[in-house]
Design brief:
Elements: H1 2-6, E1 11-18, E2 26-32, H2 35-42, H3 45-51, H4 54-57
């Protein structure tokens, strides 16, 4: 998904991290120009295919955290 998402209109950043002190724990940092771009990403066939596998692939439910830039 990473290469495809990075090519999407409105994608500013899409980087997958593995926690250094907890192998197997991953974090995805995503930044889109606006909510419409994020919604378009979520609607892509490759994201929908991933979403169907959440229970199989993820130990815990997917958690989205929305941030507002302050500086």
């Amino acid at each position: 998904m990473v290469p495809l998402t990075r090519q999407e209109p409105g994608c500013l950043d899409y980087t997958l991290f593995e926690q250094a002190d907890a192998p197997g724990t991953f974090y995805m940092r995503e930044s889109f120009t606006d909510r419409a771009a994020l919604d378009a990403h979520i609607a892509t066939p490759y994201f929908q295919a991933f979403a169907k596998r959440f229970d199989e692939l993820l130990e815990r439910p997917l958690q989205l955290i929305f941030l507002a830039e302050v500086a």
